[in-house]
Amino acid sequence: MEEFKTVEVTTDFLIIGGGMGGTGAAVEAAHWGKENNLKVTLVDKAATERSGAVGMGLSAINQYQGENSSPDYLSYVRQDLMGCCRDDLVMDISRHVNGSVHMFESYGLPIWLDADGKYVHEGRWQLMINGESYKAIVAEAAKNALGMDNMIERVFILRLLLDKNDKKKVAGAIGFSVRGPEIYVFKFKACLVCAGGAVHVFKPRSTGEGLGRAWYPPWNAGSSSYLTTTAGAEMSSQEVVFIPGRYKDGYGPVGAWF
Hints:
Blueprint: E1 5-10, E2 13-16, H1 20-35, E3 40-43, E4 58-61, H2 70-80, H3 87-107, E5 121-122, E6 126-131, H4 134-146, E7 151-152, E8 155-163, E9 166-177, E10 182-187, E11 190-193, H5 223-230, E12 245-247, E13 250-252
Parallel strand pairs: 1-10, 2-3, 2-11, 3-7
Antiparallel strand pairs: 4-6, 5-6, 8-9, 9-10, 12-13
Helix pairs in contact: 1-4, 2-3
């Protein structure tokens, strides 16, 4: 059996996960890292260009504030979730979402425009896009911001490691390469976990081929919840569960096309 070798990576700020959340955070973190002479590193269990729930692309952006107000959006979310929401988190998303959409457009994401040059909406909140390369576009922006030396792909993070002198502080992470006999040990001052949700938590009523159907990709294994819970993080909004409708010849959320 081939022996494993240990690879140590020391950084100031580690981003775990290379999906839309991780790559978007990488762009922002890289900006402020350069301002303050801090090293930012991203680690992804797959190839960042097509990893995460948006890896295959999307046909719409599900929220754009546009001319609506933040209280309007909060009212919509609160009603949709029957009151089970953190108002402060919803308002934070609302305040920043327009800027994020404009940033994606500046990266090269094609957003539908009408004859007057305005965004094409499907309903009140959604924007229509040609998003088959959505993730690849954002991943490229992250790679340009961080530099390839600070992008580590094909490494699965197993556990966060606590500071030996302060058990309320996370100081490292350990994982393994999914391509070779290598164990990775990360040492950092702070980290951000963007490792996706959890799929197939509940068994569907479907049978046969439909039993394994899911809207989110099946490799969303619940790493975000596992890593943060075992490290002692405070968990919030865990009562909000997304369960898409499943029916003959289709499954997914009610959105741009149905």
